């Protein structure tokens, strides 16, 4: 083999890994084009690594972990077929599945290439540690200068959650700590006696920056994960030269970082761990309520769960009345969320992953690693990598960790490197001939087909986001509004064919068809009827990929009520279909004030059953409602009471509304009008 070939391949593989890692930073479950690009890069990297393996008949690494990771990835793929929300689960397949995927790609890199690959990848990881630390410190001091409230003075880097960002810093801290001990231990002079090693000094500066950034997040979960992982780091590194002095230095830096970054918060981080504070703090109380609701979600779908990434779609129906502190996006406990979304098997894989980490630490710590017959210069960095992944796996008990794309990806890379050191046992004979496949090109063709099919869908998803969800850029490209609308209509039509499970193109087409139907001025209603039928069909098609869309059910109900005559439905049938659609939407999102009010008006108030309408509306107050929606619902109750002639009851409802929300202007204006006109007769609400 050409000596330059391994270096070229190692550089190419490193570029793929680092590009995917960089693209994952700002995804945050929202920017679909970043997820699509990162996932496609991962697949191309995987295909480049697997291609020669398949040609050779697929020799497989011996040991439990590669098989476990393969089964985990296959399981994630299978869940797409029974998910209650397949389109949403598709995106989370790439986020959660990136951990086993990058592991399987990394461990199949040939040994001569793998060492150079890791050397260059580690340099990129160190660069990311500096970038993330700088980002945290910049956010901290900028916000402090702007007078941001202390509760919000918590950097989150490129993520949307500061606790997950703290976990990311932990993931980087422990591998850097281990490498620092190894590098600085090579010096023949006594610790701090002169002759500092420049590389060791660089690692010490990196640790200092990571500690400053970490404590700037003021994350209780991150601190607990750090504190629970440090004893294992001490155990593993204690035998190194001058380990005691180095640990004194590290803990001294941590204490200084706590003092510097905790000043603005009044050094409340330790106090926030007190049992009394935890039991009364709204953030921890809300987590407990979310966990109870998640458990109820699991009990409703105990075997296969609701589908990956479907938690936020199902949570509104399970939210408990006192839980009003979260957006309901994640349950802040990956183990419970795995259980609710994938059932017992899904949780079993995550628990198995945690057990793998415990076994890896046992292997790397037992009798100082002599059983592995590897030098400390290899064993200790591997231990640091495992400790980093161990820290975030423990942190996942109180926050959403693996649902952050860069954390899952980096955890897979770290564990793959560690396994190469502590667990590699050679390779099996080629597997494909043993199962009757004697021509590697067959599996290579299947690999290409899988990559092309997945990339096709990901590119379509990115196009849907760019054209229909965040398309402000298109205004600069196509300045004519009519041309732009026509282009988007054609694009949405094509995307419904390219990506049938996508919801946004169908909803866009349905809304456009209804708009055109409303503008139709021809006396012949045939064309208008066809537009309404097409809109209804598109709305229903949008529910295939994600059925839990209360807004779409709202639109379907409104369509039946407003356009039902064009569908040859009498009033009774129109009302029945509208109520059925709205009730389905309200079952998905019981917090919807709009749907509850529409049902109350059509089912009760329009029939003269005012008391029943008020009772139905009032039942919504028992649901968990944020202040402004609660005020809106109370306003609708007052309006219904007023129309029923119960003016005193309406006034009492308004007074209660203002006790709860003094800044609700419509209620203030109405009460003022009532008082001004009380001497002249009944007031009219505005």
Gist of the model:
The protein has helices at residues 4-24, 32-55, 64-79, 86-107, 111-145, 162-184, 198-216, 220-237, 243-262, 275-280, 282-300, 311-314, 334-365, 376-395, 405-422, 431-434, 440-469, 474-477, 481-498, 504-519, 526-545, 550-563, 571-588, 593-603, 610-619, 627-643, 647-660, 665-677. With 686 residues, the chain is mainly α. It is globular.
Structure description:
With 686 residues, this protein is mainly α. The protein folds into 3 domains: 113-422, no CATH class; 471-590, Tetratricopeptide repeat domain (Serine Threonine Protein Phosphatase 5, Tetratricopeptide repeat, Alpha Horseshoe), CATH 1.25.40; 609-685, Alpha Horseshoe (Serine Threonine Protein Phosphatase 5, Tetratricopeptide repeat). Helices cover 71% and strands 0% of the residues. Helix 1 runs antiparallel to helix 2 (32-55), helix 7 packs parallel to helix 9 (243-262) and helix 21 (526-545) packs antiparallel against helix 22. The longest helix is centred in the N-terminal third of the chain and has 35 residues, at 111-145. The N and C termini lie far apart (84 Å). Its main location: membrane. It is a multi-pass membrane protein. Keywords: Membrane, Transmembrane, Transmembrane helix. It holds the Pfam family Wzy_C.
């Amino acid at each position: 083999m050409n000596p330059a070939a391994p270096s070229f391949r190692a550089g190419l593989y490193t570029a793929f890994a680092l590009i995917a890692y960089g693209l994952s930073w700002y995804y945050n479950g929202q920017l679909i084009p970043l997820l699509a690009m990162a996932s496609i890069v991962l697949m191309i990297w995987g295909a480049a690594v697997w291609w020669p393996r398949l040609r050779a008949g697929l020799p497989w690494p011996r040991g439990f972990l590669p098989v476990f990771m393969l089964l985990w990835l296959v399981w994630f793929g299978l869940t797409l077929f029974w998910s209650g929300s397949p389109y949403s689960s598709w995106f989370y397949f790439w986020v959660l599945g990136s951990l086993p995927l990058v592991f399987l790609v990394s461990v199949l890199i040939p040994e001569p290439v793998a060492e150079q690959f890791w050397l260059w990848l580690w340099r990129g990881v160190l660069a990311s540690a500096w970038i993330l630390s700088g980002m945290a410190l910049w956010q901290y001091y900028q916000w402090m200068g702007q007078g941001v409230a202390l509760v919000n003075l918590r950097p989150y880097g490129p993520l949307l959650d500061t606790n997950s960002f703290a976990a990311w810093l932990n993931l980087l801290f422990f591998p850097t700590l281990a490498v620092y001990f190894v590098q600085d231990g090579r010096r023949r002079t006594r610790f701090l006696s002169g002759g500092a090693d420049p590389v060791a000094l660089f690692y010490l500066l990196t640790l200092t920056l990571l500690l400053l950034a970490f404590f700037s997040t003021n994350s209780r979960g991150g601190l607990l994960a750090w504190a629970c992982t440090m004893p294992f780091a001490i155990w593993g590194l204690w035998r190194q030269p001058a380990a005691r002095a180095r640990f004194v230095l590290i803990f001294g830096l941590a204490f200084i970082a706590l003092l510097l970054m905790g000043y603005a918060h009044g050094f409340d981080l330790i106090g926030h761990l007190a049992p009394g504070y935890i039991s009364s703090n709204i953030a921890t109380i809300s987590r407990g309520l979310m966990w109870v609701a998640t458990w109820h979600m699991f009990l409703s779908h105990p075997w296969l769960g609701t589908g990956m990434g479907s938690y936020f779609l199902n949570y509104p129906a399970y939210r408990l009345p006192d839980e009003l502190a979260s957006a309901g996006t994640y349950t802040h406990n990956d183990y419970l969320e795995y259980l609710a979304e994938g059932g017992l098997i899904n949780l079993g894989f995550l628990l198995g992953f945690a057990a793998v980490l415990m076994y890896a630490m046992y292997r790397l710590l037992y009798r100082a690693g002599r059983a592995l017959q590897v030098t400390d210069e290899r064993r200790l960095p591997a231990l640091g990598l495992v400790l980093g992944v161990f820290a975030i796996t423990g942190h996942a008990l109180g926050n959403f960790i693996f649902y952050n794309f860069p954390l899952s990806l980096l955890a897979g890379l770290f564990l793959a490197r560690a396994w190469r050191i502590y667990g590699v046992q050679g390779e099996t004979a080629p597997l494909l001939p043993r199962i009757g496949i004697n021509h590697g090109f067959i599996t290579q063709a299947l690999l290409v087909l899988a990559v092309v099919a997945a990339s096709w869908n990901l590119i379509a998803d990115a196009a849907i986001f760019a054209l229909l969800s965040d398309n402000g850029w298109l205004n600069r490209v196509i300045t004519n509004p009519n041309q732009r609308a026509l282009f988007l209509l054609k694009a949405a039509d094509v995307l419904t064919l390219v990506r049938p499970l996508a919801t946004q193109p169908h909803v866009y087409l349905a809304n456009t068809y209804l708009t055109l139907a409303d503008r139709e001025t021809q006396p012949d209603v045939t064309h208008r009827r066809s537009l309404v039928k097409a809109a209804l069909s598109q709305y229903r098609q949008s529910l295939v990929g994600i059925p839990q869309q209360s807004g779409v059910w709202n639109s379907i109900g409104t369509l039946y009520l407003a356009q039902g005559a064009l569908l040859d439905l009498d009033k009774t049938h129109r009302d029945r279909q509208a109520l059925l659609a709205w009730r389905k939407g309200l079952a998905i999102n019981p917090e919807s004030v709009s749907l509850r009010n529409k049902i109350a008006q059509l089912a009760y108030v329009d029939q003269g059953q005012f008391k029943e309408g008020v009772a139905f509306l009032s039942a919504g107050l028992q649901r968990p409602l944020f202040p402004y929606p609660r005020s809106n619902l109370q306003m609708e109750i007052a309006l219904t009471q007023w129309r029923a002639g119960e003016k005193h009851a309406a006034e009492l409802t308004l007074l209660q509304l203002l006790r709860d929300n003094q800044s609700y202007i419509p209620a203030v204006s109405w009460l003022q009008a009532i008082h001004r006109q009380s001497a002249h007769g009944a007031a009219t609400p505005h």
